[in-house]
Fold this protein.
Amino acid sequence: MTESPEFAPEIMDYYLRGRENERLRSGRGRLELWRTRDVLRRVLPPAPARVLDVGGAGGVHAEWLAADGYRVEVVDPVPAHVDQAARLPGVVARVGDARALEDAGGSADAVLLLGPLYHLSDRADRVRALAEARRVVRPGGVVAAATISRWAAVHDMIRSGRYAEESVRPVVDDSARHGLLRGNERIGFTTAYFHDPDEILGEFADAGLPEARRYALEGVFSLYADINEWLDDPERRGMLLDVARRSEGEPTLLGVAGHMLTVAHA
């Protein structure tokens, strides 16, 4: 097995707790999962295309991709994630680094970066990861990358009632000003980089991926106090997801969503 790449210890420690898969399978995290799936099902080439899920964690997205008939390979820096993903039907998994993929050029039909850009605080590393995705994907193939929005931590702490705490407010305020979150237990997340909505377009372009399109994933809905009631009710959930899809490209709403998906063709 490839040696695990070096990352900040607090980032590795956070993911070794196994929270990521459960975060997207329950509560308000389901909205991010379902919206990511909705967008990808529209932009990916038809199955059985080969999809490289870089930073795919324990396979929360690889699982439904494989069920849809895609040939999915997860590449993740956390060995425990790789072991978990490898147990999923139809999924291959290995340890690797988004900035230095082992795959041959043009060997994948699509490359997903649904997490790596969160934890690459240096712009050069983010562009390098995107350029690697471009190298590995075939001409005309899809590169899709998720980013956390610049104000996400502030919004989340206000919603949860913790923004008034002196140990929390300066940290999330800094993330809104400069993009870098210094994670801690009170915030419930680890060190991460939060993007301005326009910033990602320049990173894609510098990686050789111009004309990228941005999709707001949760819209404003993850900020709602009663979001779980909407998600638990199939009829109301359908209405909410329909509005989220119709408003996903609205420029004035891109930075409000907690997460954004940016997609380009190589």
